[in-house]
Amino acid sequence: FAAGVGGFAAGVTDFSAGVAGFATGAAGLAAGVTDFSAGVTDFAAGVAGFAAGAADFSAGVAGFAAGVADFSAGVTDFAAGVTDFAAGVGGFAAGVTDFSAGVVGFAAGAAGFAAGVTDFSAGVTFCNRSGRFSSRRILLQE
After folding, report:
1. How far is CA 18 from CA 13, 26, 31, 51, in A?
2. From CA 36, how far away is CA 13, in angstroms rounded?
3. Widest Cα–Cα separation across the chain
4. Is this prediction's pTM over 0.70?
5. CA separation for the pair 108, 86 (Å, rounded)
6. pLDDT of 125-137, one tens digit each?
7. Which of 36-45, 83-92, 105-114, 117-126 is predicted least confidently?
Protein backbone atom coordinates (compact mmCIF):
# COMPACT_ATOMS: atom_id res chain seq x y z
CA PHE A 1 0.00 0.00 0.00
CA ALA A 2 2.82 2.34 0.93
CA ALA A 3 4.42 1.63 -2.44
CA GLY A 4 1.12 2.48 -4.17
CA VAL A 5 0.86 5.75 -2.24
CA GLY A 6 4.45 6.58 -3.19
CA GLY A 7 3.69 5.75 -6.82
CA PHE A 8 0.56 7.88 -6.70
CA ALA A 9 2.54 10.81 -5.25
CA ALA A 10 5.15 10.37 -7.97
CA GLY A 11 2.35 10.31 -10.56
CA VAL A 12 0.92 13.54 -9.16
CA THR A 13 4.38 15.10 -9.34
CA ASP A 14 4.80 13.93 -12.91
CA PHE A 15 1.31 15.20 -13.76
CA SER A 16 2.13 18.60 -12.26
CA ALA A 17 5.35 18.68 -14.28
CA GLY A 18 3.34 17.72 -17.38
CA VAL A 19 0.85 20.55 -16.73
CA ALA A 20 3.75 22.99 -16.29
CA GLY A 21 5.35 21.64 -19.51
CA PHE A 22 2.01 21.98 -21.31
CA ALA A 23 1.71 25.61 -20.11
CA THR A 24 5.27 26.27 -21.29
CA GLY A 25 4.49 24.63 -24.65
CA ALA A 26 1.29 26.69 -25.00
CA ALA A 27 3.27 29.90 -24.32
CA GLY A 28 5.88 28.81 -26.88
CA LEU A 29 3.13 28.07 -29.41
CA ALA A 30 1.62 31.54 -28.83
CA ALA A 31 5.05 33.13 -29.32
CA GLY A 32 5.53 31.05 -32.49
CA VAL A 33 2.16 32.22 -33.85
CA THR A 34 3.15 35.83 -33.13
CA ASP A 35 6.50 35.33 -34.88
CA PHE A 36 4.76 33.63 -37.81
CA SER A 37 2.30 36.55 -38.11
CA ALA A 38 5.21 39.04 -38.05
CA GLY A 39 6.95 36.94 -40.73
CA VAL A 40 3.85 37.02 -42.92
CA THR A 41 3.69 40.82 -42.52
CA ASP A 42 7.40 41.14 -43.39
CA PHE A 43 6.92 38.82 -46.38
CA ALA A 44 3.99 40.95 -47.62
CA ALA A 45 6.12 44.09 -47.23
CA GLY A 46 8.93 42.36 -49.13
CA VAL A 47 6.56 41.43 -51.97
CA ALA A 48 5.30 45.03 -52.11
CA GLY A 49 8.91 46.30 -52.13
CA PHE A 50 9.78 43.84 -54.91
CA ALA A 51 6.78 45.03 -56.95
CA ALA A 52 7.83 48.67 -56.45
CA GLY A 53 11.40 47.77 -57.44
CA ALA A 54 10.14 45.97 -60.55
CA ALA A 55 8.07 49.06 -61.48
CA ASP A 56 11.12 51.30 -60.97
CA PHE A 57 13.23 48.93 -63.05
CA SER A 58 10.63 48.96 -65.81
CA ALA A 59 10.54 52.77 -65.73
CA GLY A 60 14.35 52.81 -65.86
CA VAL A 61 14.35 50.51 -68.90
CA ALA A 62 11.81 52.77 -70.61
CA GLY A 63 13.92 55.84 -69.76
CA PHE A 64 17.02 54.13 -71.11
CA ALA A 65 15.20 53.26 -74.35
CA ALA A 66 14.07 56.89 -74.66
CA GLY A 67 17.66 58.03 -74.07
CA VAL A 68 18.93 55.68 -76.78
CA ALA A 69 16.30 57.04 -79.18
CA ASP A 70 17.32 60.64 -78.34
CA PHE A 71 20.99 59.75 -78.84
CA SER A 72 20.20 58.17 -82.20
CA ALA A 73 18.27 61.27 -83.25
CA GLY A 74 21.23 63.41 -82.15
CA VAL A 75 23.61 61.32 -84.25
CA THR A 76 21.30 61.75 -87.25
CA ASP A 77 21.13 65.52 -86.69
CA PHE A 78 24.91 65.68 -86.34
CA ALA A 79 25.37 63.79 -89.62
CA ALA A 80 22.95 66.19 -91.33
CA GLY A 81 24.92 69.12 -89.88
CA VAL A 82 28.17 67.68 -91.22
CA THR A 83 26.55 67.32 -94.67
CA ASP A 84 25.27 70.90 -94.53
CA PHE A 85 28.70 72.13 -93.43
CA ALA A 86 30.37 70.29 -96.32
CA ALA A 87 27.85 71.82 -98.73
CA GLY A 88 28.59 75.25 -97.24
CA VAL A 89 32.32 74.73 -97.71
CA GLY A 90 31.67 73.72 -101.34
CA GLY A 91 29.51 76.80 -101.83
CA PHE A 92 32.19 79.00 -100.29
CA ALA A 93 34.83 77.50 -102.61
CA ALA A 94 32.55 78.12 -105.60
CA GLY A 95 32.06 81.70 -104.40
CA VAL A 96 35.83 82.21 -104.15
CA THR A 97 36.20 80.85 -107.70
CA ASP A 98 33.47 83.20 -108.98
CA PHE A 99 35.04 86.12 -107.13
CA SER A 100 38.44 85.32 -108.68
CA ALA A 101 36.85 85.16 -112.12
CA GLY A 102 35.17 88.51 -111.39
CA VAL A 103 38.52 90.06 -110.42
CA VAL A 104 40.09 88.76 -113.65
CA GLY A 105 37.11 90.09 -115.64
CA PHE A 106 37.35 93.46 -113.87
CA ALA A 107 41.07 93.65 -114.63
CA ALA A 108 40.38 92.82 -118.29
CA GLY A 109 37.63 95.48 -118.37
CA ALA A 110 39.94 98.05 -116.80
CA ALA A 111 42.64 97.22 -119.35
CA GLY A 112 40.06 97.53 -122.14
CA PHE A 113 38.87 100.84 -120.72
CA ALA A 114 42.46 102.12 -120.56
CA ALA A 115 43.02 100.98 -124.14
CA GLY A 116 39.81 102.78 -125.14
CA VAL A 117 40.97 105.97 -123.43
CA THR A 118 44.30 105.68 -125.21
CA ASP A 119 42.55 105.13 -128.56
CA PHE A 120 40.18 108.04 -127.89
CA SER A 121 43.10 110.32 -127.01
CA ALA A 122 44.91 109.23 -130.17
CA GLY A 123 41.76 109.94 -132.19
CA VAL A 124 41.42 113.41 -130.68
CA THR A 125 45.09 114.12 -131.39
CA PHE A 126 44.68 112.90 -134.97
CA CYS A 127 41.62 115.04 -135.51
CA ASN A 128 43.33 118.10 -134.07
CA ARG A 129 46.26 117.60 -136.41
CA SER A 130 44.07 117.19 -139.41
CA GLY A 131 42.11 120.30 -138.52
CA ARG A 132 38.80 118.65 -138.02
CA PHE A 133 38.29 120.35 -134.66
CA SER A 134 39.62 123.78 -135.58
CA SER A 135 37.28 126.63 -134.76
CA ARG A 136 37.80 128.24 -138.16
CA ARG A 137 36.69 125.19 -140.09
CA ILE A 138 33.63 124.76 -137.83
CA LEU A 139 32.65 128.37 -138.43
CA LEU A 140 33.09 128.01 -142.16
CA GLN A 141 30.88 124.97 -142.27
CA GLU A 142 28.07 126.79 -140.52
Report:
1. 9, 12, 20, 48
2. 34
3. 194
4. no
5. 33
6. 887 776 655 555 5
7. 117-126
